[in-house]
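Q: I have 73 residues here and want to know how they pack in 3D. Can you give me a structure?
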Amino acid sequence: MAKVCKICEKKSAMERQYKKLISKYNPTPKKRKYPNLQWVLIPSDVDKKAYKEYAGKKILACTKCIKALYKEK
């Protein structure tokens, strides 16, 4: 199973590991950062367009999408 958000398609990214002194003589290693994905049950009566096709299903979604799902205007 891929570690990708079903809604916004957020996936892992390569980033530099933080060190205080970065120069060409002190290179920093690369590190893979993963999105915060969690299983969520999309309600069947959802009214937002991005979530309609997943209504009533359990999917992997990032926390940003989960927050947007339950947010009201």
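Q: Anything worth noting?
A: The CA atoms of residues 29 and 72 lie 42 Å apart. The helical segments are 63-69.
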